[in-house]
Amino acid sequence: MRKRYTLLLSLFAFIVFKVSAVAPTWTVNPGSFQYNMTMVAIAEINCVELQNTNNRIGVFVGGQCRGTAFTSQVINGRFTASLFIYSNLVQGENLSFMVYNAAMDSVFSLPNTIAFLQNASFGTSSVPHVLRNNNPPTNISLGAQSFNENLAANTVIAGLSATDPDAGNTFVYSLVAGSEPNDNAKFSILGSNLRMLSAFDFETQSTANIRLRVTDNFGCSFERNFQLQVNNVNEAPFALSINDSVINENLPSGTQVGVLSALDPDANQTFNYSFASGAGDSNNTAFSIVGNELRTTQSFNFEAKSTYGIRIRVRDAGNLFFERAMVIVIRDVNDVPTALLINGSATTASFAENRGIGSFVANLSTIDEDANSSFSYSFIAAGGNDNSSFQIVGNQLRANMAFDFETRQIYSVFIQSSDGMGGTIARQFLVNVTDSNDAPTAIGLSSLAIHENRPVGTFLAKLSSIDPDASQTAFTYSLVAGAGSGGNTHFYVSQDSLFTSSSFDFETLASYAIRLRTTDAFNASFEQSFTIQILNANDAPTDILLSNNQVNENVNLATTVGNLSAQDQDAVSSFSYSLVAG
């Protein structure tokens, strides 16, 4: 029974030869040898398994062929060769291999050698022995798998190396895509060094995933995923602030101005605050720092000095620091306003009637000891006020209704002025409405109708006006264009009377629209439209018709000659007829 042995392949430093040639004519004479062994093998060139039934494997000792076969057996999609290998020694002869690649028409000398052993068997149909000219790399190593944050762009973070069974191979490294998302785009490779393209921030990203490939000089490759750690390093604070930099004057020494705080890229940092020398430090001694509180060391007077410059340093637990100059503002304590005026008066203001809603009535002003104070004004709800008749816009009192002198002349308002700092003053004012000319409000006509067929120039109506001003008695009237003026051309106005300028026919048009304007002595006017009715009057018949105007001779007395009918503009149904001289 033939025994199967497991042999160790001897790998030597080698140079693989590829020789261009026609198909080899390797032959072996089994009768020249006493012993044999078997091998089921596949061929692999540059990590690509050959798939061609015309490929061929040869086994040699020195230059003598000891076995050869085509890869003509296709088992499970793999092209295998079944080899008988011969020797005159029971064991020990060093066997070398050559492969003919039919597609390339080239012969490759392989680096693999094995020792002959009588009746040994290498490979099976399901697990054939692999003969290859080159082994792929088996691993990639990084000189470091962590790096510090904030390094400069293109900093080398690790050296690359590869593990390969074949001595003397050279390698090319690259970043490649894989099945999982990665951060390849943030890195680059230069030779055998891995570099980052831009600085990493630990607080933003603490790990980076990459996938590397190493390819040897025969094109065989190996890939591996790496997770790189971003190392957190202490970073200096980058901002310093105080929650309040304004303090009232006249407060005692030791009063808190505000609370200091800092921003640092590193979470959970502790800070120490102190004064620093440098630009903006001129008034450091006017303050003290207790923990994170800025306090005063004196009482401030706004009128003497209103701002103080200080410079503060914040230092983190790693002794890195940041400095900032600050200005502390002394706030002037507010004084209450002393007077509230309307149009410069402490009591009253006047304005003319007939102002529109939103129109100006009076200016409001305030007297205050504090310079540059600004004031806001509002109504105060107090008994007996007329506040709702007005509105306040900025520092102006404005009308919130139409005022009529003839209806009411005096109004009372309650107004408050606020300086915005808590100081207020309130006053009651009397607002007087003064008389001014009012426009007429209506036009009267003594008649709105006239009979038809009256001659041109017939008097139609006496005109009159209604005016809120009792003293107004003189008005001027005219016909004007506008809504309801279509019949103006059939009439004319003379002083305070309306006359016709046409003779009217009821049956043609029974009414006319006119538009009149009345203007008072102060040129205030009012317009109004009217409809003048044309009254129907009896019209004489305009024609007599005879149904027959011929009669035969010799007819009897009282014989009907024809029927009489009449034409008349008036829709009447009865007429009387008679023979008359003429």
Report on the architecture of this protein.
The protein has no helices and 45 strands. The chain has 582 residues and is mainly β. The strands form 11 sheets. Strands 2, 3, 6, 7, 10 and 11 form a 6-stranded mixed sheet that branches. It has a 5-stranded antiparallel sheet with strand order 1-9-8-4-5, with no helix packed on it. It has a 4-stranded antiparallel sheet with strand order 12-14-17-16, with no helix packed on it. Strand 42 and strand 43 form a beta hairpin. It starts with 17 loop residues before the first strand and ends in a 15-residue tail after the last strand. Mean pLDDT is 90; it is low at 1-20.
Structural class: mainly beta
Rg (CA only):
60 Å
Low-confidence stretches: 1-20
Shape: elongated
Mean pLDDT: 90
Q: How many strand segments?
A: 45
Number of helices: 0
Main pleated-sheet profile? 6 strands, mixed
Proportion of residues in extended strands: over 45%
Helix content: under 10%
Oligomer: single chain
Amino- and carboxy-terminal Cα gap: 172 Å
Task: Please tag this protein with its features.
582 residues; mainly beta; five-stranded antiparallel beta sheet; 0% helix; 47% strand
Summarize it:
The chain is mainly beta and 582 residues long. Helix content is 0%, strand content 47%. It has no helices and 45 strands.
